[in-house]
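Discussion board: Methods & Data

I've been asked by a reviewer to show the raw model output for two of the constructs in my manuscript, not just the figures. I'm not sure how much to include, so I'm pasting the format here to get opinions. Each protein appears as its amino acid sequence followed by a line of C-alpha cells. Is this the kind of thing reviewers expect to see in a supplement, or should I convert it first? Here is construct A:
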Amino acid sequence: MKAIVVYSSKTGRIQQIAQAMAQVLPQGTPCVPVDEMPSDFSNYDCVFMGFWIDENQADPKGQEALKKIANDHVAIFTTMYDDPYSDQASKHLRSAVELLKPGSGVVGTYITWTDKARYMYEPEAGEDLHLDEAQSFARNTVSRLKGN
C-alpha cells in the first residue's frame, strides 16, 4: 500500500500530527506540507490530508490543496476547538470534503480537539496532541483499505 501525508499547519500542531501518522504508515510514506505536495495523486492508494480550521472552514492553504486532490481514498484530519462530535464539526468536515476533486472518495475523518485559548499558538512542550489516537486512525484506515 502506497500512501502520502499532506498537511497545512500554522502553529505546528497539524505538522506534528501528520508526522506521527506517517510513522505508522508503510515505510517510506512521504509526509509533506501542501507547498511541496505532488500535482498527481494517482500513484497513491491513500492520501491523508490535514489542515486546521479557520473561520469555520479549512484554512486557505488547506482549501487550495483539497481542490487539487483527486483520489479514491482520501483520509481527512484536522484540529479544531469545537466539540469534535458537534454539528459544527460535521459542517467543517463536510465543507472540506466538498472541495475535493469530483470522484474522490473519503475513507475516514479524524479531529484533534484543541483548547480554544491555545488554538492559534504553537503547542507547548508536553501538550497532549493525542498523537496515539491519530496513529490509530492512520493504522485503522490502512487496515480497512487492505481488507484486514
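Construct B, same format:
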Amino acid sequence: MMRNIEKYRNAFINILDLEEEDVCEDLALGSTPEWDSIGHMGLISEMEDVFDVTLDSEWITEFNSYLSGIELLKRLGVDFINE
C-alpha cells in the first residue's frame, strides 16, 4: 500500500508531469513552468480526490509550495507520520 507522502509526491509527478528528482521541498507555485494556474487547479483537484478532502478557497491560496501542501493536508487530518 502506498504511503501518503508517496501519494502526495506522485500527484506532483503526474499532474505537473515532473520527473521524480524535480519534486523536492523547494518546489513552489511558479518555480517551474508546469506549476502555473492551470497546474495548480489540477493539483488541488488531485489532492481532493486522493486524500478525500475539500480545500476551500482560502486554503487554495495558502497552498503555494510543496511544504505548504503537506501542512494543509495535515490540518485536514491526513497523517504523514504514523502511517
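Answer (T.O., handling editor elsewhere):
This is acceptable in a supplement if you add a one-line summary per construct. For B, something like: The chain has four helices and no strands.
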